[in-house]
Amino acid sequence: MTESIERGELPTHYTPADVEGRLYERWISSGLFAADPTRHPARPHFSIVIPPPNVTGSLHMGHALDHSIQDALTRRRRMQGAETLWLPGMDHAGIATQNVVERELAKEGLSRHDLGREAFVERVWQWKGESGGRILGQMKRLGDGVDWSREAFTMDDQRARAVRTIFKRLYDDGLIHRAERIINWCPRCLTALSDIEVEHADLEGELISIRYGAGVDSIVVVTTRAETMLGDTAVAVHPDDDRYRHLVGRQIELPLTGRRIPVVADEHVDPSFGTGAVKVTPAHDPIDFEIGQRHGLPSLTVMDERGVISVHGPFEGLDRFEARPAVVAALREQGRVVKEVRPHEHAVGHCQRCATVVEPRVSLQWFVRVAPLAKAAGDAVRDGRVRIHPPQMAARYFAWVDNMHDWCISRQLWWGHRIPVWYGPSGETVCIGPDETPPEGWTQDTDVLDTWFSSALWPFSTLGWPDDTPDLRRFYPTSVLVTGYDILFFWVARMMMFGLYAMDGTEPFKVIALHGMVRDQHGKKMSKSFGNVVDPLDWIDRSGADATRFTLLRGASPGGDVPVAEEWAQGSRNFCNKLWNATRFALMNGAHVRGDLPAKLGTADAWILSRLQQVIAEVDAHFEDFDFAKACEVLYHFAWDEFCDWYVELAKVPLAGPEADDTRRVLGEVLDKLLRLLHPLTPYVTEELWTALTGAESLVAADWPVRRGSLTDRAAEAEITSLQRLVTEVRRFRADQGLKPGQRVPAVLEFGGSPLADHEEAIRTLLRLTAPAGGFTATASLPVEGVAVRLDTAGVIDVEAERKRLEKDLAAARKEVDQSTRKLNNQDFMAKAPEAVVTKTRSRLEQAEADIARLERQLAALPA
RNA sequence: GGGCGCAUAGCUCAGUGGUAGAGCUCUCGGCUUACAACCGAGCGGUCACAGGUUCGAACCCUGUUGCGCCCACCA
Description:
about 850 residues, elongated, 4-stranded mixed sheet, RNA-binding, alpha/beta, 4-stranded antiparallel sheet
């Protein structure tokens, strides 16, 4: 690239597609992302395991954000000298994947039962090999610096061993058991679901009142699910409810069935809701199940696994939603409906994967007894061994781990880790570890494990557990877990439980860094139905991977949601282009990084280097806070507004003079450090530019900048700030007066004692001021920053416009003087305000007074 | 039903006691040999509302209104 610049052939625009593929190849082939647990044993380690994307997934904006953050953290730590590992992998995603493959089969007119279990699972593996894992290729487009040699899959052999091992251990410890309970059941997926796989949505239902029994022995119950009355085995009332006290213990007739059921008293009933009497259907409602347990009521299942009425009679064969109106109609015929149905909004559970209304169902399932595990998971955060960031998210975490129900882990699916329990011919049960063989002739449980069971092992199964591997010793616990707050419960809390359990109380990660959800430019959730979903690959194609990442990171305030719009990605692309051109300018002017910085720095050089030190400190602080938005902002502002707009412009003068080499060195220095600081955020463009600037191999392995306090120079900063004010004021004058930017104006600059005298040439260049020729007549005089700028505008100035302008400024300055004076005369203020505030107020007053003097002089100098 | 959070410029958001900020948008003027994917200048906000604390409040307290999210076994 350098040679082409020398030949003047460097394109004026950065084209991401020309560099991204090439650089990624180079990074991978040179092994820069490969971790080595034995290398540099004295150095700290930094490890992140990727939240494994579903094998069915493809890269969406949420991944792009998640990965951008992890890559930024890892790249920075690597530059800081840590032994880093960012470990990639995928999740087999039980139900989701099975559904995908079943849909494929359906196109061929087949169901999984036509294939049989073995052939179906084989088919899923085949699918996984062909179209699963598309996302891995997409991660390369994004530039993810992961260690591909350690890629893991939640269903591969090593992870299967981990699953078997921990299952056996939990089983032997009595923390896994099998029980007949009421669980969430999806009548479409035909499997049990855990509590968190059920999503509640408010639906408009109908609340209906039905009279049970007859005469004095009658009682009115209210329900939204009339069809379940076929399975009622009691009516419950509150024990203190005087209205029904006489009925408790008596039997009443259940309509339509002729069965007689008892009235029981149960604390759980709310006397103020409806009639205060509840029908009890233990087989089809979780609360009723518990009431049934307390009162020894029979459980009568009236629906099959597909939600179809299965009891003999007129409703047999009807789907639950068909049965409901049918039952109501039949009741109405008998005069049992005492009140017309009325609308009632209530929360209804839906299957997370297919949105089918969940049907509570009594069945035999496997459960993890979570109480001791959840306690440990809560304590690790309470003790401060694991830090949740941002901290307010900890409240949600505690609310969940402290109130967790037992976890139903069995699924009636075929795709997943099969439960490692075998049953003997006479009903014996044995749990078989990974290196054991089941007794001859015994049969394995047909259920598979909840997909989150294997995900929960991820931070250590990926490092080789249950084996004692160098990876596990070096990289566990991992440094930080980066993920969206939406899976705090699904995944994070479970990794905590299993990590602490399997690794003898050692937490799986030191920090949980939660980010928000990517949203559209109006803050709305991206969803297919809104039509506002953005594909990050489109952005990468059009604006580049760096622009895509920078846009996401720029919006990533800690824990906050991230709104994005393609317009903003173009802004980020422009920023990359700005860096490109700044470097192009520097290289064309001989910028370099050879040797020490000049011993004696010019003011502009001292200023930009001083600012750079401050930027390094700020970027470090923001990284430590996971505040990528601020890190981006600081760098964006420094690079564009300070370095490009001021330093580069100021540098043009000395570059043409005898001190040019000092300036070349400083230009090189600032760019060098700036590109390093930006590399974790925008890896491609910085790599391309930095290698061109320095001639070094790769920025990936370069050192992270360290702040040099000796380069801080407050005086230089003050001087340049003063220069900026002067230039801005004169530019304002020029713009207001309609002087074309390119128009050269003769001017005399009177510096008095101002140090800005050193910058006369620069000021003249920036303001397009020429030396006055003969016949110079100053038609405007601007006293700014102690410098009098006398301009010959050849009589074109608009006196009225300028007068209005100056008077406006004057009014503002006088208001400031009023306010500051009032404050300084206020005894309470003087007594109670901190010294720094008083000082600041004084200097503000002085500044305003100086402005008034200046403005008055300017006004006086205006031609009449 | 419980919990958490948010209301600041046209839009999206920073700003946790001391002169209201950024990006984008908008207006005006410019192809000034790094960059028009650019440069320069500018317009734009009684910081949701009502009280309170304080010398001083966008910021702390109370209430009101309007949103958002999470959890949830009132049928």
